[in-house]
């Protein structure tokens, strides 16, 4: 399916709610749960979830939701998660991804990490505008969500399920992840009550946002 | 044989040329991170083996490519396991600061190749793979993350110097 067709599948408001709910959970979601969250009947939810799967926006599998296994555990239920692939549409056609990859490759070869991070920090500061440093973790969640991250709270810190620079970050991790950290440092501001720190984990953004230590290092 | 379900494991060598002697205060932060990052590697999913100098905790004392070049040689069950450790663990923070401590490489500084499970690569073998990559570019014998080959592709390739049966 063409990207533009896949994205068009999201135009239906019920489908869109179901998609956004599944994506936000970051785990497998069953039909009943999705139907309840979207406020629609189970059969309608099933229909739309399968449309989303057909468009390649979700992936489906089956799992016994009861947690039991073996005879008597019940029929496996269908579950959904976000598909890993990316969809994008640009009208008129543009190809910023190739440009980003070529620029990153050249920056990597020339060892331009420090210059890239300085530019990223300035951009983050410009995005923040005249406001002071980010006032707390809840404010950080809003600022991050507005930039395309998918922030969630864990153990009193903000982690991010999405990396807006995923494709380039996978090809040039230290360069692009360093850029991402500098951008977020600029966006959140330094010397305030929260700070960004690199704490990479498989499958997630490389940065965590946490309360600053009182005696900053 | 090991209990690993993989018939072939991925070996990796990377080399780094220090900007300052290893006991210089300007590389102290790198040295401080060696023990925790190595410990994280040892516990990482898919980790098989890493080179250490006899009686030492790491291989930074081995300098087969010259006094200012440190080497890092390890074996992993899969390419994904190595990638996740290198770029999605505390090791990424070390990588991010690499320009503070190491000279930029003009030639390839990382090489990957497949070895039969249970095979422990020698430093000499690793340096041959790096030389192969530098001389001929990526091939099933010696490749990089950006241009990688599967174990099956490497196995189907011509004799490559480690012909141990699989």
TrEMBL record, chain A:
Pfam families: HTH_20 (PF12840)
Superkingdom assignment: Bacteria
InterPro entries, A to Z: ArsR-like_HTH, WH-like_DNA-bd_sf, WH_DNA-bd_sf
Protein name from the UniProt record: Transcriptional regulator
Upper taxonomic lineage: Bacteria, Bacillati, Actinomycetota, Actinomycetes, Kitasatosporales
From TrEMBL, chain B:
Top-level taxonomic group: Bacteria
Domain DUF3291: 10-147
SUPFAM superfamilies noted in UniProt: Dimeric alpha+beta barrel
Pfam families, per the entry: DUF3291
Protein name: DUF3291 domain-containing protein
């Amino acid at each position: 399916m063409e990207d533009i067709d896949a994205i068009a599948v999201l135009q239906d408001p019920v489908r869109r709610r179901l998609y956004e709910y599944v994506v936000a959970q970051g785990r497998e979601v069953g039909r009943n749960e999705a139907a309840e969250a979207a406020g629609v009947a189970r059969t309608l939810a099933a229909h739309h979830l399968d449309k989303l799967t057909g468009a390649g926006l979700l992936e489906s599998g089956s799992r016994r939701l009861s947690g039991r296994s073996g005879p008597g555990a019940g029929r496996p239920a269908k579950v959904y998660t976000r598909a890993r692939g990316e969809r994008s549409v640009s009208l008129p056609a543009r190809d910023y991804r190739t440009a980003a990859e070529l620029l990153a490759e050249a920056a990597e070869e020339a060892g331009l990490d420090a210059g890239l991070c300085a530019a990223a920090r300035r951009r983050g500061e410009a995005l923040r505008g005249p406001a002071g440093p980010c006032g707390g973790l809840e404010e950080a969640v809003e600022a991050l969500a507005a930039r395309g991250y998918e922030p969630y709270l864990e153990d009193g810190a903000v982690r991010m399920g999405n990396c807006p620079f995923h494709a380039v970050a996978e090809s040039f991790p230290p360069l692009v992840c360093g850029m991402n950290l500098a951008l977020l440092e600029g966006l959140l501001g330094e010397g305030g009550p929260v700070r960004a720190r690199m704490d990479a984990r498989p499958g997630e953004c490389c940065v965590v946002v946490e309360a600053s230590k009182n005696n900053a290092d | 044989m090991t209990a690993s379900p993989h018939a072939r494991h991925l070996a990796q060598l990377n080399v780094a040329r220090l900007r300052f002697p290893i006991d210089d205060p300007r590389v102290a932060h790198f040295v401080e991170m060696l023990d925790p990052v190595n410990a994280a590697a040892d516990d990482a999913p898919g980790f098989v083996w890493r080179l250490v100098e006899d009686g030492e905790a790491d291989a930074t004392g081995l300098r087969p490519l010259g006094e200012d070049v440190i080497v890092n040689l390890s074996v992993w069950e899969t390419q994904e396991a190595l990638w996740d450790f290198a770029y999605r663990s505390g090791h990424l923070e070390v990588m991010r600061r690499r320009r503070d401590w190491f000279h930029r490489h003009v030639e390839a500084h990382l090489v990957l190749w497949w070895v039969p499970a249970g095979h422990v690569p020698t430093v000499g073998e690793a340096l041959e793979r790096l030389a192969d990559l530098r001389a001929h570019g990526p091939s099933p014998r010696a490749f990089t993350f950006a241009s990688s080959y599967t174990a099956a592709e490497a196995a189907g390739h011509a004799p490559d110097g480690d012909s141990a049966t699989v």
